[in-house]
Every structure is written in structure tokens, then in C-alpha cells.
Design brief:
The protein has six helices and four strands. By secondary structure, it is mainly alpha-helical.
């Protein structure tokens, strides 16, 4: 059976005004990462180039041995257990009390001539010498559930401040 180019015979036909079930759905971060950052838009979630590069530099810093050492030091200090619920059975996460994002922005202010896009490798090298990244007192061990709760509270607080 022949069909028109680009139209498969089994393709459902939708009426005008049909709204798909997933039109305004926001996908969780884990799924967005699986889909990939190469896409410009995933159901309303836009990745701008500056934001994408910004996040990639942060991820590069999180992959260097100093970060891994910092994380292990936080775990050891807290006895490999969640500091809020005292749980040892769930996966643990090293959380920054003062957000990593803000530390990174302060770090960038020290090097205004360096471009995030072109000099990211220099920024990663310079981050090794920037002590706020590696301050163990800024870290806290949390289980994944408590970590999500803290970020939800922080996001809710931020939204309330913006509404005032």
C-alpha cells in the first residue's frame, strides 16, 4: 500500500483544537538529563547557551579530584549518615549549605576577563585554589529524600520572596 510522503497510514488523525495529554507537563530533572542537553527545548524547558555552558563548567568542577575529596570528607565527618533523619540505608548526598551556584558566581566575579564559554578549562584549574569550594564546614550529609525536601523548601522560600 502506498502512502503520501511523510505520512504513515497508521498515524492517528487529530481534530483541530486537540490538546495532547503532555502539553504543559514539566519533566523531572533526571528525565531531562536522559533526553539530553543538546535539545533547545523540552516541553517548555529552554536551555540557553550561557546557562548550558555555566552548568557544564560547574559539572566539570564537580568531577575534579578535589571535589570528590571534599565530598568524602563531609561524609566522614558526618559518619556516612543523614544529618536530618539519621538514616544510613538510603543513598547519601553531600549538600552545600551555602549553595554551590552562589559560590560559583562569586568565584566568577574574581575573574571578569575570563569567558565561561572560551576559558572554561582555566576556570576549572583556578577553582582548585578557591577555598570556598572546598570548605568542609559548608557541607552536610543528607539522604536523597531530605535533600529533595531542602531544595523544595528553598525553592518555595525563593518564590515567596519574589511575590512580596
Amino acid at each position: 500500500m502506498k502512502h503520501k510522503r511523510g505520512k504513515h497510514p497508521n498515524t492517528p488523525k487529530f481534530k483541530k483544537g486537540y490538546i495532547p495529554w503532555n502539553k504543559n507537563m514539566k519533566y523531572p530533572l533526571s528525565l531531562r538529563k536522559k533526553v539530553g542537553r543538546g535539545h533547545k527545548k523540552i516541553n517548555g524547558y529552554k536551555y540557553e547557551l550561557q546557562d548550558k555552558v555555566f552548568r557544564n563548567v560547574q559539572e566539570a568542577i564537580r568531577d575534579i579530584p578535589e571535589y570528590i575529596t571534599w565530598r568524602k570528607a563531609v561524609y566522614q565527618r558526618d559518619g556516612y549518615r543523614c544529618r536530618t533523619c539519621d538514616n544510613t540505608k538510603h543513598k547519601i548526598v553531600a549538600h552545600h549549605r551555602y549553595p554551590f551556584n552562589k559560590i560559583f558566581k562569586n568565584f566568577l566575579k574574581l575573574y571578569p576577563k575570563l569567558s565561561i564559554k572560551n576559558d572554561w578549562y582555566k576556570l576549572v584549574e583556578l577553582s582548585i585554589e578557591y577555598s570556598p569550594f572546598w570548605d568542609v564546614e559548608n557541607g552536610i550529609t543528607l539522604c536523597e529524600d531530605c535533600h529533595i525536601k531542602i531544595h523544595r523548601k528553598r525553592k518555595k522560600r525563593k518564590n515567596q520572596e519574589n511575590n512580596i
